[in-house]
Amino acid sequence: QQQQQQQPAAGITLEQLLSNATDTHDGGTPTTAVMHQVAINMLEELYSDDEDGENYEEEEDEEEVEEGSDASEITNDNEETAEAGEMNLAHWAVLHVEAMRTPVCKRALYRCFVVHHLPHLQSLDRVAVTQEERASTAVAVAAKVEKLPSVSMPRILQFREIGYFHPRSPRCILPQPCLFPPSSLSKFEWAAASCVARPFRAPQLSVLTTPDMSPRQFEYSPTVPNYLLFGTMDGQIVLTNQHTGNVLAKIQSRLEGHILALSWLRSWSNRHIFAAGSDNGLISLFNLDLAWAGLNPVVHELAPFDRLTSIHGNATDDLLLASGYSTDAILYDLHTGKVARRFVGIHREHINVLKFSYHSPNIFATSSFDRSVCLWDLRSQSQVPIFTRHSDKGNVMVVFSPDDKYILTAAVDNEVRQYQTCDGRLDLRFDIQQLHSNNNYSRAYYLNSSDYVIVGSCEENCVHVLSSRTGKLLADVSATSTFSPFSPSTYIQSLRGDPHYPFHLACLFACNPPTEPTKIVKMNLLGG
């Protein structure tokens, strides 16, 4: 009688769910595909508004009234046992929901997003959904979240979770891998929908480093898609294959201390050459071909830059810029290894990051904690920037879009802006939730060429993915599952968008306090 009274409103008991999801050919273990199909069937029954559902609820109310006298005869011990069982089931449900939320649901837009895209939803997290709330969520989602393709979310979820029937084999009963979008969706719409609509699985994550490596900085190769280079906290430089995780080269450099800066040369002929700098100011130019031949891989040892923080090479592979905890910047000639020019006092506070443009070898940008970002031209002999733009807080970094059309800046506490490179006009200020902390250092980079922007901060474990054209949120992605559940708070120390593969990125995660080593986590937002 207790089991009958505890049946859900949809009329499906836990025993029926398990029996329907049991595959007798696999030793009685529920298969993933069958469980997904049963879950979708449950959702359809839970959220349907047909007459059968209403009649069922009325019949259930009548049965409760008739069986009221029988229920009153249950002993106190049985009541306590039933109550404890309900509490355990509720606790499990909360944990399950927390683990299975979509990336968008990890932030404040969670309820708006779900209510808007499930029009027949009657309650969420045990709170009833009213018509007034549904109307307000439509406005909020339209203003804050990227628009999904013109298909229903249940269909997208079904395609992603159990596959779909291939047109050449319409009678196939096995789930097919979702390698191609349905004919009604373009590849871009399919990619965007796949990134957003993920209620059962998190994005595909893979850890590229081992616990003994302790990475401190990393960079994708601009020419070889498989290459990912990172430097460690003990001065070691490692080249890995980002798809297999295999270590392709290890260089124990003379750069003592933490490797804080890496910069690949960009041409195909120089695809195995890169520069690296450490926190003690030492900068060297390395050639991987020499390392693989068993020779000394150092091409040049450049003049030191005290308390280095950033280096970057230009588009023609002949110049390298360096900055650090100083108001100065130094320009190196990579052919000779000597200093070509010094920029003295170009900011009021130290220059955290500087970047060359992708296509012009003479244009570069600097970002400083004096709350300013400046655009410079090497052809000008004066130390007057092309333009200067200011932020509300100190600027952590700056980067050009791959087509050099925009400049992206990130200041403390998720203050991210996009400017037009031609004249410095403010193109977009991204609306990202702030923590009101002066120590929340944020970083932002482009994803999918320049279609999206990814933002990570050192007091958050979540990557924000936003449209670079509208500023709307596409997804929030977390990789906390790669850490021990007993770890302290994790945060993003650095991140990069993959320049070769759409919706792929990598993040450098760390713990505070550092009870676990840092790790580089590769994220595939499409889930494989």
In short:
This protein is of the alpha+beta class and 528 residues long.
Notable features of this structure?
528 residues, alpha+beta, four-stranded antiparallel beta sheet, 11 helices, 32 strands, 23% helix
Q: Shape from CA axes?
A: globular
- What is the structural class? alpha+beta
Number of strands: 32
Can you list the strand order of the major beta sheet?
5-32-31-30
Distance between the termini: 46 Å
Which bin fits the share of residues in helices? 10-25%
Q: What proportion of the residues form beta strands (DSSP E)?
A: 25-35%
Q: How many helices does DSSP assign? A: 11
Which blocks of ≥5 consecutive residues have pLDDT under 50?
1-36, 42-75, 89-106, 163-185, 194-201
The biggest sheet, with number of strands, parallel, antiparallel or mixed sense and barrel status, is: 4 strands, antiparallel
Task: Round the mean pLDDT to the nearest integer and report it.
Answer: 77
Gyration radius, rounded: 28 Å
Question: How does this structure look, described?
Answer:
The chain starts with a helix and ends with a strand. A 4-stranded antiparallel β-sheet has the order 5-32-31-30, with no helix packed on it. A 4-stranded antiparallel β-sheet has the order 6-7-8-9. The chain has a 4-stranded antiparallel β-sheet with strand order 10-11-12-13. It is 23% helix and 33% strand. Helix 3 (32-46) packs antiparallel against helix 9 (153-162) and helix 7 (110-117) crosses helix 8. By secondary structure, it is α+β, with helices and mostly antiparallel strands.
